[in-house]
Each structure stands twice: as C-alpha cells, then as structure tokens.
Write a structure and sequence with these properties.
The chain is mainly alpha-helical. It has helices spanning about 5-25, 30-35, 40-55, 70-80, and strands at about 55-60, 65-70. The protein has a single domain, classed as Winged helix-like DNA-binding domain superfamily/Winged helix DNA-binding domain (Arc Repressor Mutant, subunit A, Orthogonal Bundle), CATH 1.10.10. Strands 1-2 form a two-stranded antiparallel ribbon.
Length: about 80
C-alpha cells in the first residue's frame, strides 16, 4: 500500500498507471470499476476524487479518459516500486 492512500486508492492508482503505460490512454470508468472489484462506478468516482485531491492524478474537465498521472506521483511510485 502507498503511504497516505487506502488499499483501494492504491489499487486504483496502480491500475491507472499500468494501464496508461500499456495502452497510452487512461482506462474508462467501467474498466477501473471492474479492475478494482467495486460494485458501482460512483465508488470509483469517489476514489478518483480522493486521488485528485491528494495530488496523485489530474482530471481534465469535459474530456473522456482525461486522467493524467502527476509527475511527482510517478516519482513516488517509482521509489515505492524500487524499495
């Protein structure tokens, strides 16, 4: 688990990072919901809001799949993966 994030937030962030690296685009809300085994998209939306408030991701308003992983978050994730 990433310090400062819940288990589900960590799972979602890692999924977004891996998916984006592999496909070059962010996953859909439905793909995220399925990947982290949530029952509803509203739960996923809440987790995304938390990640955004904590500075891990940025969302572009009005655009589909417009999730951007913040550079500082990429660096933190890299340090965590290397440990």
């Amino acid at each position: 688990m990433i310090t400062g994030l819940t288990r589900k937030q960590t799972d979602l962030f890692r999924f977004i990072a891996a998916y984006t690296d592999r496909h070059g685009i962010a996953p859909t809300l439905e793909e995220m919901t399925v990947a982290i085994d949530l029952k509803s998209k509203s739960g996923t939306h809440r987790l995304l809001t938390c990640l955004e408030e904590r500075g891990w991701i940025r969302r572009e308003k009005g655009l589909a799949r417009a999730l951007i992983i913040e550079e500082a978050a990429k660096a933190r994730l890299g340090r965590i993966g290397a440990a």
